Each structure stands twice: as structure tokens, then as C-alpha cells.
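C-alpha cells for chain A. Residues wanted.
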């Protein structure tokens, strides 16, 4: 139920209105979208082949397009579950991997043993893989957006490009001893 309340007049002869909108919005299930970043996961091919080779319930004698539809429908549900429970959120995974790398870097600084170096390098490799997955995610999302909206030569496009250029610019470098290098020639 929605309502309109007339608030008191203060400095003006106009009466401000307060709108209360209580809409019961029913949100349906989101449409299935294949994520290209899934391909880079080590278990992805196994999930696909296991699902594709499994028998179709209740009758495996289904033929033709109905068989294809049944397999694709089941695959959609399997990939949704797999994405939620195994692949998980790539951004959360990156944050966790970054914290792990920092922790292992500190451990290596305290005890520079071969074992600590191997664990640090494995953590860095894992982080790089996750960052690659994030890059694939954003490329796919950007391509989808440009497919819908087109690549227009707008002020917004140039503002975003310039923002990214300044964001990626290295303004200063902090050395191990705490000194700061901010000269463009030295950077």
C-alpha cells in the first residue's frame, strides 16, 4: 500500500509531499548466463563431461532435440550449483588470495626457507589465475554492454578512458627503506 503525506509548510507557500511506496516486487530467477571465466577453472571440463555423459532421468531412451534440451537444462542447473558452491564469487576469491599472498610474504620475510618460497609462489600463481578470471569476466560483461548499446564515441566513453588512464598511472614508488620516489624520470 502506498501513501502520500502532506508535510508542514515552512518558508514557502508550497506544501512538500512525502511519498511512501510499499511495492511488493516479485523478483524471478535470473536468466542463465554462461561465464567464460569458468573455462579457466581446473574442474570445469570434468563437470561438463560428467554431466553430459550421465543418464537422462527417468528414461534414457529420449532422442533428438528433446534429448539435447534435457541435457542442456540439467547442465544449466549443475553449472548454477557449481558456480555458487565450487567456483564461488571471483571478487571474494581474489581478496582472500591477496590476503594469503600478503601473509605468506610476511612469513617468507621472517623465515626465507625453500618451503615458504614454494608456498608463496603457489599462492601468487593462484592469485594470477583469479585475476585472469576477473579480467575475462569484465571483458565478457563489457562486450555484452557494447553489443547492446554500441561503441559510441561519447563524452562518457572518453571520460571513462581518461579516468582509467589516470587510475593506472604510477604516481610514486615507496622503497623498502621507506623513501618515496615521485619523480617521473626515476619512476
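Reply:
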Amino acid at each position: 500500500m502506498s501513501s502520500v503525506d502532506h508535510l508542514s509548510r515552512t518558508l514557502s507557500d508550497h506544501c512538500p509531499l512525502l511519498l511512501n511506496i510499499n511495492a511488493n516486487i516479485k523478483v524471478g530467477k535470473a536468466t542463465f548466463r554462461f561465464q567464460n571465466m569458468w573455462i579457466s577453472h581446473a574442474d570445469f571440463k570434468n563437470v561438463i563431461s560428467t554431466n553430459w555423459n550421465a543418464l537422462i532421468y527417468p528414461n534414457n531412451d529420449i532422442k533428438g532435440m528433446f534429448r539435447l534440451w534435457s541435457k542442456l537444462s540439467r547442465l544449466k542447473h549443475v553449472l548454477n550449483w557449481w558456480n555458487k558452491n565450487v567456483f564461488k564469487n571471483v571478487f571474494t576469491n581474489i581478496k582472500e588470495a591477496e590476503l594469503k599472498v600478503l601473509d605468506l610474504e610476511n612469513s617468507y620475510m621472517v623465515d626465507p626457507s625453500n618451503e615458504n618460497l614454494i608456498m608463496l609462489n603457489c599462492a601468487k600463481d593462484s592469485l594470477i589465475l583469479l585475476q585472469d578470471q576477473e579480467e575475462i569476466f569484465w571483458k565478457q560483461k563489457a562486450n555484452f554492454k557494447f553489443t547492446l548499446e554500441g561503441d559510441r564515441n561519447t563524452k562518457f566513453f572518453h571520460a571513462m578512458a581518461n579516468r582509467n588512464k589516470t587510475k593506472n598511472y604510477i604516481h610514486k614508488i615507496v622503497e623498502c627503506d621507506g623513501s618515496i620516489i615521485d619523480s617521473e624520470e626515476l619512476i
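The radius of gyration is 27 Å. The first strand starts at residue 3 and ends at 6.
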